[in-house]
């Protein structure tokens, strides 16, 4: 156990035992550092960990306090999924389209949305930078950066990889229309109709749609809500099905919020390398961590160029700009060709504005504020679920992102809950849309990335009443 983990464990035990009460102030970082004989950085990391667990809250200029809901949060899901082991054709699109249509209405409370509130982003500053960039735009840039993307933006992305300890050359990066295009291009680069693809269970519905659209088959692998895909089950699936790709989210997976530990990511990369199966890594939530440092992607452990790391600015900076990228490793040329043959290029003004924003600084300051806001909202949201939902409801406690996965007690019909909630002006994401096979009928994914206010509290109370009405003991 690392020093910060031991410190966090000791404080956690004091909170859960009642020795520290809700509202109590934790000792200052300086005092704890001196009393425990550890560095201030270790104390900060321990406090960040406790904040991510919903046990403490930071108050500006005041320090850290035991959360008002500490010790009273709903229990966590504690078992991995159990999908069938067969490769399956998919028919997901209609279900997903129905959900997406409901999240586009401003009069609906967007608990079912896959995006955080646009009010959390520096859109005014980005707009000014876009204006500046358009006025200075080199006419030849539309030709020079046609498919790989804006050279300045790719350099900035390469620098951010370097900060995280990874050497990713700008020439390896292809800028795309959001991360979803990057993920689709990767899939097209390595798989053909009829091939099989390894996925998590439950899985991001965008991956299910992409697999369906390209005529591929999905192999769902058991996945735990805390640490992700079961690697022993993954190896059995690799041996049996010989898939052409593995598509998964190692950091704050959608919908579970699971975070794969670094050691497990390393083992995953080694396992796929033995079978020479490329990994399509969806890392759109990686910057939204609540701990002391950004969790490494699986790409950090890749020495053979088999990992195609995909991300975007849509979830953390500029949701409407639709700018993503892929660091495609040995598949860079194939991905670039797929891009050239499909959408050709990505919006030049949007790329230029983001490059300018990264060059001028301020991105990390924005991310710190965003992460703090999301961590605080997660605690408020979980406490409201505890108060309004049936006893026995289990809720994940992600260490980042803005999505919660709920397991409802007894027999429940998530699709019926979705329909009843929509009639009350509330969207939710029902569990069945995250699986290529029947399952997760008693599960919901809820978005806590929109500002917590009286409207959100009332909507969650209404949703709790709906769930009560649809749960059979």
From TrEMBL:
Keyword DNA-binding on entry: yes
Coiled coil (residue ranges): none
Keywords of the record: Aminotransferase, DNA-binding, Pyridoxal phosphate, Transcription, Transcription regulation, Transferase
Database matches in SMART domains: HTH_GNTR
Database matches in InterPro entries: Aminotransferase_I/II_large, HTH_trans_reg/aminotransferase, PyrdxlP-dep_Trfase, PyrdxlP-dep_Trfase_major, PyrdxlP-dep_Trfase_small, Tscrpt_reg_HTH_GntR, WH-like_DNA-bd_sf, WH_DNA-bd_sf
Domain HTH gntR-type: 1-69
Gene3D superfamilies cross-referenced by the UniProt entry: Aspartate Aminotransferase, domain 1, Type I PLP-dependent aspartate aminotransferase-like (Major domain), Winged helix-like DNA-binding domain superfamily/Winged helix DNA-binding domain
Pfam families with a match to the protein in the record: Aminotran_1_2, GntR
One Gene Ontology MF term: transaminase activity
Keyword Transferase: yes
Family: In the C-terminal section; belongs to the class-I pyridoxal-phosphate-dependent aminotransferase family.
Official protein name in the record: PLP-dependent aminotransferase family protein
């Amino acid at each position: 156990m690392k020093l910060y983990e031991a410190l966090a464990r000791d404080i956690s035990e004091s909170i859960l035992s009642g020795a520290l009460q809700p509202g109590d102030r934790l000792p200052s970082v300086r005092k704890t550092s001196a009393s425990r004989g550890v560095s201030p950085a270790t104390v900060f990391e321990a406090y960040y960990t406790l904040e991510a667990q919903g046990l403490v809250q930071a108050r500006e200029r005041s320090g850290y306090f035991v959360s008002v809901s500490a010790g009273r949060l709903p229990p966590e899901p504690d078992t991995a999924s159990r999908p069938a082991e067969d490769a399956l054709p998919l028919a997901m699109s209609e279900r997903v389209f129905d959900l997406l249509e409901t999240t586009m209405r401003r009069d609906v409370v967007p608990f079912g949305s896959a995006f955080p509130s646009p009010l959390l982003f520096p859109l005014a500053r980005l707009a000014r930078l876009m204006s500046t960039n358009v006025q200075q735009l080199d006419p030849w840039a539309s030709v020079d950066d046609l498919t790989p993307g804006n050279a300045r933006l790719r350099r900035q992305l390469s620098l951010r990889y370097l900060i995280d300890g990874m050497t990713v050359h700008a020439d390896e990066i292809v800028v795309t229309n959001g991360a979803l295009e990057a993920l689709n291009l990767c899939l097209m680069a390595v798989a053909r109709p009829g091939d099989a693809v390894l996925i998590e269970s439950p899985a991001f519905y965008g991956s299910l749609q992409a697999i369906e659209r390209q005529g591929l088959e999905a192999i769902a692998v058991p996945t735990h809500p805390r640490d992700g895909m079961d690697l022993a089950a993954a190896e059995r699936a690799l041996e049996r099905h010989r898939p052409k790709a593995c598509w998964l989210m190692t950091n704050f997976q959608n919908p579970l919020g699971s975070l794969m530990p670094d050691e497990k990511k390393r083992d995953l990369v080694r396992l796929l390398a033995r079978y020479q199966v490329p990994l399509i890594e969806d890392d759109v939530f990686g910057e939204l961590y609540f701990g002391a440092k950004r969790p490494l992607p699986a790409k950090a452990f890749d020495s053979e160029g088999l990992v195609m790391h995909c991300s975007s600015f849509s979830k953390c900076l500029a949701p409407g700009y639709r700018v993503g990228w892929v660091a495609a490793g040995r598949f860079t040329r194939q991905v670039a060709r797929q891009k050239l043959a499909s959408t050709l290029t990505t919006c030049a003004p949007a790329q230029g504005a983001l490059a300018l924003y990264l060059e001028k600084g301020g991105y990390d300051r924005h991310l710190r504020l965003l992460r703090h806001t999301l961590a605080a909202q997660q605690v408020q949201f979980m406490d409201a679920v505890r108060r309004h939902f049936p006893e026995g409801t289990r809720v994940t406690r992600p260490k980042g992102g803005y999505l919660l996965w709920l397991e409802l007690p007894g027999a429940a019909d998530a699709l019926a809950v979705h329909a009843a909630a929509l009639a009350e002006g509330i969207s939710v994401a029902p569990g069945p849309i995250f699986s290529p096979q029947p399952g997760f009928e008693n599960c919901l994914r809820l978005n806590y990335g929109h500002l917590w206010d009286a409207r959100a509290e009332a909507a969650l109370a209404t949703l709790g009443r709906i769930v009560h009405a649809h749960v059979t003991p």
